[in-house]
Structures are given as C-alpha cells and as structure tokens.
Fold these 4 entries.
Entry 1:
Amino acid sequence: MNTLAEENYLKAIYHLSLDCDNVSTNQLAARLNMKASSVTDMLKKLAEKTLINYTPYQGVTLTDTGEKIALNIIRKHRLWELFLVEKLDFRWDEVHEMAEEMEHISSNELIDRLDRFMNYPKFDPHGDPIPDCNGKLDTQNLKPVSALPIDQSATICGVRNHAPAFLQYLEKLELTIGRKIHVTEIIEFDHSVILKVEDKTVQISREIANNLLISL
Amino acid sequence: MNTLAEENYLKAIYHLSLDCDNVSTNQLAARLNMKASSVTDMLKKLAEKTLINYTPYQGVTLTDTGEKIALNIIRKHRLWELFLVEKLDFRWDEVHEMAEEMEHISSNELIDRLDRFMNYPKFDPHGDPIPDCNGKLDTQNLKPVSALPIDQSATICGVRNHAPAFLQYLEKLELTIGRKIHVTEIIEFDHSVILKVEDKTVQISREIANNLLISL
DNA sequence: GCACTTTTTTAGGTTTGTCTAAATATTTTA
DNA sequence: TAAAATATTTAGACAAACCTAAAAAAGTGC
C-alpha cells in the first residue's frame, strides 16, 4: 500500500499541522531528522499520489486521503502503546519506540480486533485520543497547568511532550494521568507552580507546567 | 541490527536446513521468490557478517550467530501467531501473513513479555514448537499420518504445510491440533487413509496424510 | 571424458530513499 | 528597496536490494 517512509512523512505532517496551517520543508526535515532536500523529494512523490497538497516554497497540507492514512497510523500507534502498558506492563515512558515499529503492521482487521480486545479505549497511556476505525477522535479541551490560576483544581489528562526523561520525572512526582491537582502558589519570579497532588506538595518549573495538560 | 531482508534470508536458510545439510542458491531463490543472482549477492553479504558459511557453488549453512538470530525470529513469529489466535480470535489459517510482519518488531523485551503474557507456551497454533528466550526448542518426534499402520491410534500434533486452503480443509474435517484419530483402512490403490476422528469417519488423500503430523 | 544441461556467479542496470553541494526563491533588515 | 540571511529546490551521487543477460562452474549421460 504505502511504504514505511511515506507513512512516516504523513504522520509527521499530521502532527505538525496541529500547530500551523502549512507545514514547511524545514519543519519536516527537523522532525524526521533528515535533510531538507530529501524532504522535497518525498513531498513531490506524496503530491504525485495526491496524499498532500504541495506547491513549491509554500509548504504542505494533507489531502483527505492523506489525513485518513495518517489517522490510521496514529490509531495503530496509540492502540499498540496502550496494549504494551495495559497488557504487557510496560511503563508509559518505555513504549514509544516499540509502537513506532508496530504502527506499520498493515492489517486493519488486526488493529480492529486489538481495539475490541482492549474494549474500545478512547485514550492512550499519555492521554492522547485514539482515533476510532473511521478516523474520528474525541477531542478533549486541554490546557497546560501553566494556564491555571491560583487555587484552581483540575485533573491531569495529558502531556505535550513524550520524552522518556519528562515522563519519568512526572511519574516520580506522581503527576500521572487521572490524578487530581490543586494549584496553591505561582512563583512570580520564574513562574514555577506549587501544587498539591493527593496531599503531597510539589513544585514544578514553568517548562514542566507548560507540558502537562489538564481539564477542569 | 539486521535488515528485514537479511532476517528473511536467515529464516529461510534455517527452515531449508531442516531438510538438507547445505542449502543451495536455487532452493533459497525459490523459497524467497527471488532470482538466484539476487540470492548470491545477499549470501556474500551475510557471509561478510559471519552469519552464514558460504563457499561459492557449495551452498550455505548458518553459523551459530546466524542460527541464533533465525531462531529468535521464529520465536517471535510463533508467539505472535499464538497471540493472534488465542487473544484476538483469529483462525489458524489467517495468521501467517500478519506474523510475517510482526516477527520483525525488534524489541526482545517485548517478545519476552508477550511470552510471559501467554504463560510461556511451548507450541504455536499449528503445533510448531516455540523457541524459548535462549533459542532452545522442544522437539517432538512427529510422524505423518501416512506412516501409520491400520488400526493405530494417535494424536494430531502438527502440520507440514501452512497453506490457508490446507488448514481450512483440516478445520472442516475437524482434523485439528490435539484431536485423537484412529486409522481404520488404507486404500491400496492410491494410499488414501480412512480414519475416525471423535466418532466421525473421514477419508483423506495420501497428500493430506503426508502433511498431517501425529504423535503416538 | 566430452558434449549437454543445470546451477551458480558475474556484470551491469533499476528503484527507493537518503545524502552533499550548488542554485534559486523568499523573507528580513537596515 | 536592495543587500543579506534564510528557506527551498535542483542536480548529481550513493547504498540496499532487487533485476536481466551473459559467463563460468558443476553435474550428467553415453
């Protein structure tokens, strides 16, 4: 159907599209650890297959077909991540690389059965929504902890960054998905946030607060 | 570590080695659906990496390292096949192609946990032994049904051929792994075998009898 | 043991997906 | 608005893993 390289490009374009309208060649090159010239080559190929809209120098967007494929890969990635955590007892900071390989297993029947096996979950271990078999996803309206005012309570629902070191740090502070937090103080000088998680008081930097997502 | 193509060659060499001492270029080409010249190229490359013993015109054998890698891929293949049948309810004739992709997921930690998740199974859905994490496998001493004399009882323990059409046919006759059979007659003319499976009488051709394995 | 057949290897070519270096387009800045 | 900086594309090369066609080695039959 599509090659591994093509699938990785579509996925990268999808993710970058969430933050801007047109994804640039350099943005893609940075995300994929490739040279811009290689990206240009592939963009031509994907445009040829009408998976993206590409005008030279103007960046790209996904076509409907391209987006569908991207969402299917993301669906597979997130379902496999959840499988690894739920069934095989991996930690949330360990599963990304494995899922990067598993998301390319082609069978859709397989992934639909995995979905059923896990009881049609809505979210992966990092709180990211899992597209259903039609590519639909539950969009939660999440805010970073850094946007909370003092004395506000909220529930941790996601992370903006999946780096293992970041996830391990959150784990250590018990700042994991589903936990309730309450903001007790915001340090004016550096915008550090002091908050309570289940009776424990912890302090996190603005950087951390920006990357930890909550719903009210 | 190793490329997908390399892994497929090592696996093919392993399987062909079970039937003969030195695997020839043409045997490999036939099994892998490739031209002999392509095989020669890859054999040089694998010899370079000391995964096989290769002398031009003399065929190949696996080195210890090569065999270890082959067994690890077979371990993954068979564990994933069992997962698909046991956990996701696929039929035994549906899982081969999916497992061909899944066997290349690199993480050994993953496969060891999958092994644990399924309670350290010894055999896959076709009765083939699953190598343990050290590459050891339980060898059952299996014979084809065609080797049974009249009036002998036995238990179905494996198949020599994994073609979906063959497996579906066996399924229809209820000639599946674990079933007890009893040979009642052997037709002299074409060596067809008439046997009883759980009170039902069925007749199978010599070809089928050759590919269905039992233990006494 | 020599001709014939079959098997294997060699030589040279193709595609995919990457690269470097150079050229060109766009954007920024002064 | 022109020069400088940055972003993007083009041109040409390379490695992996295939291919076809031709050459060479091995095996076989009389």
Note: Chain A touches chain B at residues 84, 87-90, 97-98, 101-102, 104-107, 110, 113-114, 117 (CB under 8 Å).
Entry 2:
Amino acid sequence: MAVHVLTLMAWADDESLKSEQVAESVNTNPVVIRRMLCELAESKLVVSQTGSTGGSKLARQPEQITLLDIYQAVESRGVFSLHRHPPNRHCPVGVNIGTVLNQVLDEVDSAVEGVLANITIKDVVSRLKPCVSTAVSKRKPAAKQPVLSARNY
Amino acid sequence: MAVHVLTLMAWADDESLKSEQVAESVNTNPVVIRRMLCELAESKLVVSQTGSTGGSKLARQPEQITLLDIYQAVESRGVFSLHRHPPNRHCPVGVNIGTVLNQVLDEVDSAVEGVLANITIKDVVSRLKPCVSTAVSKRKPAAKQPVLSARNY
DNA sequence: GACAACTGTAACTATATTGGTTACAGACGA
DNA sequence: TCGTCTGTAACCAATATAGTTACAGTTGTC
C-alpha cells in the first residue's frame, strides 16, 4: 500500500493529493492513508500540509526514494521472527537456537534489503507506464490521464 | 519453530522423538508440534510412526535438508503480499500496480530463497555446537548431552 | 472573523492469522 | 487387550492489521 501511495504521488508530479483521493485509488479509508502518510512523513519521504488546500506530495524526487526507504518507514520488523514464546532454557538446543536463527534472519533481511534498495519509485513508475498505455486507453495513447480527479470514480 | 524441531532431530541422531519431548524443548503444546510434523512429513523431511513406540525422526541426512525445504514445507506465502482488497480498477495506477509489485515480490522471494537454500540443518547444528559447549557445561566440554530425555526437564 | 476543507490522531470495531487446548479415533508394540 | 503413541477435528485465545467514527487543530477564502 505504501508503494502504491508513493507511486501515485510520483505520477501526480508536484501536485499535492488529498488523503481521500489517494484512498480512492487504493480502495480504502482516508484515515488509513493518513496514518500511513504520517509514518512516511516521519521518514521524510512525503510532506503534508494541513488546512483547506492541504494534501501530501513527495518530499524528494521519485528516483531518490527506494523501496527500502519505504519498507523501513512502515515496517518495524524483519520478514521472519523467532518463536513467540522463548524455547526451553534447559535444553541445549532450545537455549541457543535463537542465537543461530538470529544470524540466519539477519542474512535474510540483508538479502531483502539488497533487493529493495535497488528499486526506486521512479523505477516503479517506469514499469507501470507500459501497462497503463495498453490497458487504459487506445484513444489517448501517449497522454497522461487526469489520474486523480474525483470525476474518475 | 520448524527449524528448531528439525535441529532437535538432527541432534538426536537416528533416535526417534515423541511430540511431547519436542514440545518441551520448543516450549509449546505437543499438538502444535504434531501439526507441524505432519506438514514436514508431507514434504518428506521427517518420518513419523504411530503406536506406542512411535515418534518422528529425520527422513534424510541433516546436510540434505535446507532451510528452503523447511520454509516451503510450512509456509504457503511469500514474505510480502499485495493489498488485502484490490485497488481501484478505474485508476491507471491502481489497476496496474499489482502487476509491477508482483514482479518485485518475486525478486524478493528469490533473494530469500537463495539465502535459505544455502543453509542446511547440518549447518545449524554446527553453528549451535560452540554455543552449547560454552553455555551448558564446563564439566563435560566435548560431551553431547542426553538432550531429550524427560529427566532433563 | 466566520466558514469550509483539509490533516492528525484517538478510540473503537472487524477480520484474519497463528498458536494453544481439549478431545478422541486409530495404530501398534508388549 | 491394554497402554502409549500419532493424526486430526473443533474450538478458544492472542495478535496484528485494516477499517470506521469522531473530533480538535490548521489554513485558505469570502
């Protein structure tokens, strides 16, 4: 969802978007979007403005925002985690398996981060464009649509 | 938990373990263990036997079981997933973001699988041994403990 | 200055997933 | 045939995430 949101904002260039517009594209509630935007703003990926002409837009160029930035902004845990309750401390395996598994989890997390660090929002937009031109309109093949006006929905 | 279970069995060599013994090391309920063992048995990683002298043990040598085998046996999904409800089909971003994100998720999953495929249960046991010898006993530095007898608990 | 349209945020509800528990049928060795 | 296991169903509990309602605070506009 977070990648979707930032992709929308890149698509909208420097125009700022309201949480309700974003929510319509993501197909969820505006509050869910605003919650996420707060997290993204804390990580300096978007800037938001309150008030009647408020809204949010990217804080940096799309090529300067990686999926790793987004992942770290909205996810607090790695992809795997250990037993929810600690194993038996009186078993030689149980007492030490966590140490070994944490090494493995670190390796996994590094691999994931390596992939995400090499993909930017600009890349996502680039990969999106061919889909859009074939999927949406044969009438205006090269024209960017007014993506987010409320009339579209 | 699954890695813990198979590590225990590797530690126990060819001795077959009862679900209750395993549950004690993992610190959970024997039924949770049996459920997991059924999944592992379907993937031919363990063999179990019913009856009064029953129990489970590894179906292959520890060096022939990778963490990827285990992951695929017990996890049905990749590490990330898409929006729980599909985005707006009338938005050019919403309608196609899933396609692009699925490519990314495939890249991430491949990276994770690459890491897991290169670690075997034997590796885990090897990494465990130094911990055990320092952590458990200075009396019997090189001796493997009777890990799983009920008396240990 | 009053109003309308936003964001930020709290509090609550809904849903899904996972783990834990109880119970019991069936397998199997002694 | 009895005791001790596994396999499995059914249910409960805990957790995490998404969705909802409500409202205070901000800001441009008239």
Note: Chain B touches chain A through 52 residues (CB under 8 Å).
Entry 3:
Amino acid sequence: MNKKVVTRFAPSPTGFMHIGGVRTAIFAWLLARKNKGTFILRIEDTDKDREVAGSIEHIQESLRWLGIDWDYGPDKPGDFGSCIQSKRLETYKKAAQILIDKGLAYPDPYSAEELENFHKKAEAEKRPFLYRDHRPNKFEVWDGTKPLRLKTPEIKRYKWHDLVRGDLEAGPEALDDFILIKSDGYPTYNFAHIVDDEAMGVTHVLRGEEFISSTPKFLSLYDALGWRVPAFATLPSILRDDRTKKLGKRDGAKDVLEYQREGYLAEAFFNYLVLIGWNPGDDREVMSREEIIQAFDIGKVQKAGGAFDEEKLRWMNKQHMNRLSNEDFLAGCKKFVPNISENIFDRALPVIRDRIHVFGEVRYMFGREGELGFVTEMPSFDPAKLSWKGESLADTSLHIKKILELLEPIAPADFSADQIKAAIWPYAEVTGKGNVLWPMRFALTGRDKSPDPFICANILGKEETLKRLRDAVALL
RNA sequence: GGCCCUAUCGUCUAAUGGUUAGGACACGGCCUUCUCAAGGCUGUAAUCCGGGUUCGAGUCCCGGUAGGGUCACCA
C-alpha cells in the first residue's frame, strides 16, 4: 500500500522566477500529478532582508501561465495552516521546544566577534571550521534573543538513498550544530523546511544539487526529532549554454514571464524545460502536458546538468504552434500586431504559420525589413532589379504587361493564389519561370526576399496588385 | 583546502555486458515552382584518460583528469 504522494515547490520570494526554479516546480508537480497526489506551493519567506515586494504574486502568475496548479498554496491554506512560512512561526517554535526538551537544542552563547575569531583560527590552522568544536558544555536557557542551534545527536557517517543519484553518503565532517532559529525569531531554511514537510505530509523532496552536501545535517535533524525521512530526489542543474556554470540571473537567466511576453506557448516552454534532465524513454520529444504526465518517471531523470539552448526552445515552440488551430494561431498573432487589418491577416496566415517560431516574431514580419513588410509599405527600388539574371529591361517590361493582361479577367473575389498561379503559369513555363516570376514578385514587393508571387498577389488583393504592376511598368 | 557530486556528437539525449553507438537541435549538401523561409531527403560529428574484471566494457571495479556543488543568523 503506497502512501499518497505529496510534493512541494518552495521558492523564496526574492524576485522573479527563473528557468531553474520553474524546472524544479515542473518536476515536483509532475511527480504529484503522475501519482494522483498532492502538490503544494510553499513560500519560504524567512529572510525578510532579501524579500522583494510582489514576488509571491509573481511566482503564482508564472506557475499559472505554465499550467502548474497547486492543491495548497499562499492562497489556499490546509489543515496544517498557512503555506507562507512567516505565518507559521508558532509551528517552528513548537518543534524547537521539542528539541530543547530533549536537550538537543541550545542557544548560541557567542558574539559575532567571537565566532569570527573561531573561523579565523580554523583557517590559520588550515582545517575546516566546525561550530561543534566550540559547543558549550552547559546550555543556557533560551530566551529567544540568541540563535538556537541543534545539538547534533550523533556524529557519524550518514548514508541515504536518492531517487536520481542512487546511494549517497558523507562523512562526519558534513555534520555541525547549525542554527535552527535566528536571533530575529525566524527559522532558518534548514529547520523550517523540515518542520513544514512533516506538518504538510510531504513524501518526496525534489530540489537542486546545491542541497546535497547539507543532507547529512537534515538527516541529523530528522534523527533528533524522531521524524520519518521523506524520499529525496536531487535534480540536475540547468547550465549556461557554455556549460561552465549554473544558469543564474547574472548570466541572462530571464524571468519566465519574459518568454510569455515574447510569445512562447506555455506548453512548448514546459515541454522544452522538462526535456532538460529527463526523457520519456523513447524518441518522443514534442509532447503535450498530458502525455508528459503519463510518461513521467523520476527514475529517468539525469544526474548531470544540462545546458539551456534557446534555439531548440524556438524549434520546440514552432512544433507546438503547428498543432494549433487557425483560430488559436490567429489569436496568438493578433496580440502582437493589433493594427493589421483582418482581411490581410486571413490571407497572410499560411505564410505566417510557415515562417514564425514564436508569436512575437509576427511583429518583424510586418516591419520594414520583414517578409510581409511589403503589405504595409512599398519601398522604392532600382528598376534594374526587376530583371531576372540578364534579361533585358525591355523584355521584362513586356513580361509584366503580359502578367497584367492575364490577371485582368480574374474577378476580385476569385483572386486566390491558385487562380493567379493558373493564369500565369503557362506563360511562365514557355517564357522561362525566372524571367516572369522574379519581376512579378519584385514589382509587388520591392524586395529580394518574400513569399512566392502568387501568395503575395493574393495578400495584396487584385486592385493593389494591378496598381503595383502598372507602377513597375512605368518605371521601365 | 575538507567533504560531496558529475562525465556519450558543439547542445539535449538513447543504448538487459554483445547495435555499423540511435534520435533531436544546430551546421553542411540535395530536392521541392524565381528569391527567402518552411518542408522532405541526406551528410559531418561523441563514449574524458589509464589500468583491471570479462570471450566481449559507453555500461562493472580501481586510479587519474576535468568540471560543478558546498563548507552563512541565504535559501
């Protein structure tokens, strides 16, 4: 009989959510959803100096965008109380009292200067500093004004199992009498997260590898409290694209909502991120959120860190955009170019669907240099460029006049790319495709690069197409 | 420095001890109506090094090397 899986994502509200944080949230959420368990969003705001206003809302907004829902969170307390640590101070005090009563917690009697001297001395002697070397023989009564430390119950080698890394262990050097409650009354992360995980029934703790080396300390605290130890899963880091370092804010790790603003699909972003450090065990890469939940297996998570590759994210986004209906695709585009007329948009849609990887790019398509820029603005150009590879200007002029002749009879309502092509194609085939198609396209767009001439004509409409062709003839 | 972790194409990754070491991104080539994209096909490209175990090692063991993490009244 397996106990219900309970996981949590526990960020501190110190600014925006970056890629690494979100990926941790995704894995914890997937493990819970895969097992029909519970996912908790807990806010670890025990360092009031580092707190950034608005972070809690921002974190929630980021997770909501990605479709990561929580069963308990800052807005949804549980039987265990609030999911915001600063509102749970009584819980930590109670746990601290248990340790004090057992003789396993004591107030730190030293001043900051004394402590600093201990550090210096250890450094001078070239040995690692351990607070427990200075543990007082007799514990004072804790009045709440001094830091409260754990009396490490047993100095020994700890071994434990990690769902990702396998069997891990560390020697007694990793153990020390760490601080449980700071002199300002707030608990440390080391203490608070364990108390909360117990109170909230967390069964699986997923976090980054920076916590591996403090795991023995956590284990000693579980021992001291006599609590059960949850399963641990250490996630690999997301690296900078040069692979030298963990991706951090200084390296351009963006606010995840920045990707939303650029027009990435949440499902694509989620899909790409989950593939850094995990795979479904087969060749599938483009997957829906539902497919990913089905396939998710914490045992298939990588041990080594992986680099974040924005190129592949773009590709992934395009794959997900391809799956969208025209209506949804159009809605995604319109946010970025609200002033383009509905008609043009509908006709240009196939071209746009082909070319952009991210919705935000639709802005550049209609810009001066963009591939659809000709729709809104016909640039001036050198008439000589109307000729295809050495064809004379006189012949080019004839070709364009012929095109005008061929297009004239088509009714404006029938002015589709197929109809236009059908009208022009036979002539182009006998005359030389380049000789006809290049000048036609150039006369319509005034630029070297664009979609094919039939589509361009269709997008412009009959009236504008004929006008531009006549203008070109006039130049020759 | 102590302790700990990691190591397959440039990148993300696959491979019950037996495969020509597979896929994807990127890159190159070709094709697909003129250009540019998109798409299709295709090519280049990897088991960090050295020992051992084994008929056989990317896979197991040992030792190096390289990279990373951590040693806070931060999380």
Note: Chain A has a mean pLDDT of 94.
Entry 4:
Amino acid sequence: MRVLIVEDEKKVAGAVRRGLEAEGFAVDVALTGTDGLWMATEHPYDVIVLDIMLPGMNGYRVCEQLRDAGNWTPILMLTAKDGEYDHAEALDTGADDYLTKPFSFVVLLARLRALLRRTGRARPVVYTAGNLVVDPVTHRCSRGDVEVPLTAREFAVLEFMLRRAGEVVSKGEILDNVWDFAFEGDPNIVEVYIRHLRRKLDEPFGKQLIATIRGAGYRLDPEGG
Amino acid sequence: MRVLIVEDEKKVAGAVRRGLEAEGFAVDVALTGTDGLWMATEHPYDVIVLDIMLPGMNGYRVCEQLRDAGNWTPILMLTAKDGEYDHAEALDTGADDYLTKPFSFVVLLARLRALLRRTGRARPVVYTAGNLVVDPVTHRCSRGDVEVPLTAREFAVLEFMLRRAGEVVSKGEILDNVWDFAFEGDPNIVEVYIRHLRRKLDEPFGKQLIATIRGAGYRLDPEGG
DNA sequence: GCTTCCGTTCAGGCCACTTTCAGGAACATC
DNA sequence: GATGTTCCTGAAAGTGGCCTGAACGGAAGC
C-alpha cells in the first residue's frame, strides 16, 4: 500500500511518515507542491495526503492538475483551521476528503483507511489479541462471545494499542496519536482511559490485557492476557 | 459493469466516481466533451453519465454524435435546474433518461440501476435485514407482513444505510450520499430522519434497527434488530 | 384556492462522555 | 524507613453530541 505525503512542515511530515510506515505503508514524502505533482504522476500511489499551504504550487493546484491529467488517486487534503483556505474548494478541485489541522494521527489513519475502503483498494481490517476482537468498520469490540460497548475515546485508545500489540507504548505516544497534536492537557487522562479499558476488558474476564511498565508506559498482551 | 462519467466539475465527478466504485462499478471519468466522446467510442461501456454543460463540446453534441455513429449505450443526462438547457432536448438527441442538478447520489444510483434494468443489463436488487424488506424498484418497504409507508427522503436514508448494513455510517456520509452535493444545511437533519425511521420501523415493532454510535454515527443491524 | 403532506429549521433539554482533580497506593532511591 | 516519583482510582464538573417536538414554508394534490 503506497502513500505519498506532500507537506512542507518537516515535523508533521516526519510524524505522519513514521506512523504510516509502522502501519505497513510504503511512504514517500514530497516537501513542495511541484515535487509532489511530479512524484504523483511518475509513480502509482494508492492514496495521497496533500497539504494545502505549500511553497511554490499550493495543494489546490496540485490536485487540480492531477485530476485534469486523468489521475484519480484518492486525495486527502490537510486544511488549516481558520478561513483563508477552504474545505469546499478542496472538494471542488477534486479532493476526496479533507482533514482540519491540528489533527491526531489515529484520525488521519482512520480517514485514510476509510478512503481506501471506499475506493475498494483495501481489505477490511480487524484487530485481534487472543479472544479480543476489535473491528473499526462496525465499531464493535468483543471478548470471546461477549460484546463490550466502548466509547469513542476508549475505542481509539484500544485500537492504537492493538496496532502496537506486544510493544511498550508510552503515555506520550498515546497522547500524540489518540489526541490532537495540539492537546495541552494532563497526561493523566491516559491513565484514566487505561483504567476504563481495564474495567471493561480485564476485570469481568479475569484476564490482564494491558500491563503497566512503570516508568516506560503500557503494553498490550498480543495473546489477550 | 462499466460506467463512463463525462462531467467537468471535479467535485461532482469525483463523488460520483467514488460512490459507483463502492457499488462495484468500474468507472472512467472524462472532464471534457471531446474526451468523453473519444472514450465512449474507443471503449465499451454499459452506461454513460453525461453532463450537458461541458467545456468544448456540450452534452447534446456528444450524445448526438454517438447515436449517429451507431453507438446506443444507455445515456443518463445531467441537466441544470433552470431553463437554458432543456430536458426535452436531451431526450431528442438520444439520451435515455435525465437527472436535474443538484441531485443526490442515491437518486443517481437508482436512475442508473433503472436504466440498466430497462436495457436488460442488470438484475433487480432488493435489500433485506431480518424481516425488513426494501425494494428500490417498487419503492416499497415492509417489516414482516406489514407494509410501512415511507417518504422519499426517509426511503433514501434507509436505502443507503441498508447498503452499508452492519457498518458505522457517519452523519457526514449520509449527508453526502442522500442529500444534494450542494446541500449546506445543518447535519441535524440526519438526526431528524433517523428519528422518523425509528418511529416508523422500530417503535411499532419493538425492535431497534438503527443504533446510535455516539461520536461516530449510526449503525443498522443487518439482522433487523 | 384550499388542504395536506413533506422537507427543513430551530430551540430546549438531557445525558453520555470527556476531562479535571485530589487523595491514596505502589514502587524506587537513598 | 524516609522521601520523592509514578501510577491508580473514584468522583465531580463541564461540554457537547444527540434527541425530540413543534413550527415554518413550499410543493403537490384535490
């Protein structure tokens, strides 16, 4: 699954790149609009993440020129929060979806997945760990035969940890991935949600799914505890 | 099932393309009349969606030339609401059906299906979920033996959710698919229609067909509740 | 022209969820 | 074992997503 990221902010581009590579995507990055346009025409990608504010040629023009050339690779546009650049125009120029900055990585990933699914390029994803099954498409979570209702945030945290099953994941990483990049709150919020997940997924079943690695973070047992 | 879309508005072309691909169609897009004419003559399509207002050669001429050349692929014409371009002329030049802009995706899909059925290229479709049966052709909906009268919008919302039965569908997706592409109103309208459907399909039968997934959207139970 | 039905908007209210907070437990370090 | 740090945990506060009834305007039918 090949992704092209066209984004001039190196910090954002890097973060997205690492995240997507960890997800098994093959990632290319272009730092300018002209580079992005060239790469998109020269190589086949499954999806393109395209910032609007770019040096040289802005995202609208890149999108427009690709479409004019008959290239209909799905495009996810990144727009800033405040006016000047507009969502409507993004869609007018042929983008498939847009995301307002600041955004969290899981949201980006979810939108990317949705895009790939809608365009029939991706097979559905289901996460499992032992008898734990989590399906982002139907938004269902079950342990064995028992369905466990989760809230949106709980679901997002669990989904992220499942993608990193077996690894130690720091609170900072969870915050960066599940909450907005701009989130400025207390990291304790992560502890709170881990608590919620444990209460719903561990205690009723007498298994410990999520272990605390003191001083480092948390680790989800790929065997389901 | 191969479809050619001839439409210069990239937003519309893209949206229709995605929707049809998700329905299992193979879709090509042409952004100008001349391109469209060329593609239609070079490749065999099962149906053509043809906008009237096009740069270069307008839809009437494209249609006319195709028919003159002995190409009788079914054509669905897209006409603007106000005068200037006329429905009658569309049919005169050899189109099989027309649709007035702005339109919603489900309506387009329905007309396309009808066209394919009339020309003997497609088998009829009926949606079911448990004892719920919805027939887009006769526009009927019944729960068990009881026929449930639905308005046009209610029907469209239900049909869309049935096509995505079991999946979480966001309000935005429902809006994009059931309302005009140009619709700029309050997403609350979706809540209102979910309410209507529940009142007609859930309450009288004591079953919950549509579940609210807070923060994500709605999910129709493929088992019918 | 009148009535009825439908689509849409609006505003009030509720409650699930998110987030904050503060006290306490567990652990590490010296 | 004293001290400090990290994490756990329950409860409270605040937000906002969703529900719902009603009202408005327009279109279609009589």
Note: Chain A touches chain B through 21 residues (CB under 8 Å).
